[in-house]
Amino acid sequence: MAKNEVAVVGVGLSKHVSKRRDVNIAELVWEAVSACYEDAGLKPKDVDAFATGNMPAFEGVNLPEEWGAGHWGAYNKPLLRITTGGTTGGSVAHGGYYLVGSGLFDTVMCIAFEKQSDGNSTMGLNTVALADAAAQLQLGVDPGFIASFGGGAVGVAVYQASSYMKSSGCTTHHLDKVSALCRNNAALNPYSHLKQPGLTPEEVAKTTLLQYPIRFGHVCPATDGACAMLFTTGEKARKLTDKPAYVLSCASASDEAALVGISGSGTTNVDPCEQESCKIAAARAYEIAGIKDPRNEIDLAEPYSPFAHQLLMFYERLLLCDEGEAPSILDSGSMNLDGELPVCPSGGVISTNAIGASAMERVAECALQIMGKCGERQVKKDVHKAVAHGWGGAVNLNVVAVLSDTPRR
To answer: When you count CB atoms within 10 A of the terminal residue's CB, does the N or C end of the chain come out lower?
Structure first.
């Protein structure tokens, strides 16, 4: 339990596109940071510390915070740098929560970003995947599973999607419907990358098949973009805004060692669809937040889903329904903006994927929805509690945060 109440009072996002040739990394991040200061009504002098994160190996710039800190208002202030793979942004948001909740600082700026056009993210992912796969050969693991890593993230995703479809009854039509849902939501989001208003599942089904069951329309883009959030104490938050978004809890969990237990010790995870660590993290986050029935108490969910099947898979792993139920819930319309439990009103990672920022943008969207700042994509029901999720590490780490319009009593 945090010592202090923690709340989000400001969110800033940069323009998100595939190639931001008009700005360098520091300038790209400043777009989000300056918007965040403006949203919260604060200035750099009001911030006590900073937390930042991205995937520097993908861009070829190590320690980018040393280059950008002065540009962002962090000169001569404490700065914590966090990188945990695809979960980086979520981990940075968790860092901000703990820096304020612990009482160490009152107000913390969290920054997450990626400028993929400056490097080669696919090659960076492949390097990690192939090195890990080589280690697994000594363990007698399924050669098909090993071979999947040669395709980087997509290689793992098709293996995972096939496993999920077999266990849940999900069909390729459900994947098409997920993409259409998210891309139509993204069309209402001025900060999203892919905007495809009116996209239908039938149009998604006609896109190029990459490897069964994943089509081009089921896959996230490579995005340049940044996200910034201001975390402060509940006392200060209530002075700054009439409707802060309180962070009730954060939790994280990882499956054994890596994809299949890189050291060969402990319990191995040979099926990336299981995501037991997500269930553990979600259960812990709900417990800390005082949520006993997430299915009925959560009003909005932002799962981290760069591939269509993951929206359904993580909806289940976030304990919002029983395993295998998500496809039928999608069919019912419950996940729509006007549904019972809207999912990814932002458009999700499948529409915008600035890797280092993506998991933070899930937390940011929950905060914005709670504060009623989402414009056309604002969901139809009042959002009292929302859950944000991030997935990454070495396909083994899950991070979960629960936000609310009221502090924990």
So the answer is: C
